[in-house]
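FW: tagging you since you asked about this chain on Friday. Here's the raw sequence from the shared folder, copied in full. Didn't touch anything.
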Amino acid sequence: MGTRPTTDKVKEAVFSMIGPYFDGGAVLDLFAGTGGLGIEALSRGMDKAVFVDLDYKSIEVVRANLKTAGLAERAEVYKNDAARALKVLSKREATFELVFLDPPYRLKNGDKLMEAMDELKLLEDRATVVLEYESSYVYPSCFGNFTELRKAEYGETSVSIYRYEP
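HL: got it, structure written out here
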């Protein structure tokens, strides 16, 4: 009940914006909720995924959804705070080609988390970051090593697609 799953409409729009299929690589689903975006990316060709959420029930749901989809062996699921999880992933020298970043709307820290990913060397060159947020809030179109490629609004939800180019 505490999650705000990405609607099917928004999910389809996201994948039409970033491309319907992938040729491998790793995806990070931070603030995973139900895991819907990361699981969709796995089903469309990503090799592996890391799911992170602080809520215990969300973690249970992600694990159940991965098992149901037959994708559990290609995923790692962690119950952790987002900032701490990024530090742990950096120590493991993990890198990602695709990141789904959907923090609770009240946090407004998507750009700070993206900058932390840059500093911690978690992103491959030209990685794609999908940031979902409340449409009444505005993130910068360009900051640090990130450039917004596309932005779309769906009612109270906005989605920005950023390219990482160090």
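FW: The chain is about 30% helix and 30% strand.
HL: agreed, and Residues 88 and 94 are 9 Å apart (CA to CA).
FW: great, closing this out.
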